[in-house]
Every structure is written in C-alpha cells, then in structure tokens.
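Why do we bother with a discrete structure alphabet at all? Because it lets us treat a fold like text: something you can write down, compare, and reason about line by line. To make this less abstract, here is a complete entry for TetR/AcrR family transcriptional regulator. Read it the way you would read a sentence in a foreign language you are learning: slowly, and without expecting to understand everything at once.
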Amino acid sequence: MFSKFYNLEDEKQIKILNAAIKVYVQKGYDHASTNEIVKEAGISKGLLFHYFKNKKTLYLFLFDHCMDVVVENFYKKVVMEETDFFKRLQDMTLIKIELLHTYPDIFRFFEKALLEESDQIRGDFQSKIKDFKASSCTWLFDGIGTSKFRDDLDLTKVIKSMLWAFDGLSEEILAKAKVQDEAVDYDEVFAEASEYIDLFKKAYYR
C-alpha cells in the first residue's frame, strides 16, 4: 500500500515523516494541516497524497512506522542477557539519543498520540494503542537484578526518577549538538552517563 513512499530515498522518507510528526505534535490531529506538512517537508500536496491517501492514512501510517522503528531499535540493540540495571539503562540512553538524532520528535509524537481524542481516528486507533502498550519499553527491564538496591527503597519510584534523569540528559545533549551544529559525540555521552550512574549507585545501592 505504501510502496511508492518506500521507494523514496531514506533521507527523503525521513524528511517527510519528521515534517508530519512535527505538525501533529504541535497541532494535534484535528488541527494539523496537510498544507503545513508539505511546507515543512518541501514537497507538493499532490505528491503527499500520491504517497498517502489522506491525512488519516498518513497519521495511522506514521504511528505504525514510529512504533516499528522504536521497538526494532531497542530489540536489536539492548542486550537482554545483561541483568545489571544501570548497564541496561546506559544502553537504552544511547539508543534513544540515536533515535532522537534521526527523529527529533518521535517520543513526543507517542505522548500526543496516546492522548489523542479526535473522533476521526479514535475508533481505528484503539487497537494500535493496545498494541503499543503491550510492546512498550517496560519489557526492557525484565529480568534485571535488584538485589544490590537498598531494601528501604520503592524501586518503581527509583526507576522512574532515573529514567526522567536520563531523558533530560538525552534532550540536553541533542540540544547542544543542534546549537553547535555538530554530530553527537557518543564517547562523551557514554562518559557523562557513566558519571550519573556512579552517583545513582552511591545513592541507591547498599
């Protein structure tokens, strides 16, 4: 169904998808305009509808594509045999930064999509939301070792606090790279993440 779109060069595909993601994040489904999407993507409206039947088709495709990208990247790159929580968290942070470097608004798109209330898509969207929640990244912490954590801690809150911290680190690094117009230095990211991990270990380990 989307073979014409997939025949485009990867760079062109990503540009169109990022344009649509950006507009949907800013406006929500009902107020998103295909005029704004094509302007952002630098293509004609006729060409957009050559690849996608209408705004609804584009939105549903975008959700499926983004979900596939996120799940595939995490499945491929996170070593599930690694039981150390902090090592797995560090791996996830690097993967997330790589994803955001290609799709800057991909996670914000999911946040908006999960709260989307448009009558035009809500019915079609229910099964997709269910699938997304079933394959969400909660499984990324399956099998981790918790014996080193202090007994007086609420592990759910501890994990949330660390995820929030590393989300902030990811955004800060990407913003810095964008301002300086430089590629992300992953050695620097790894070193900084390691420093935070050392702090967390001192705070939360026995």
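What the structure line is telling us, in plain words: The chain has a mean pLDDT of 83. The first helix runs from residue 3 to 6.
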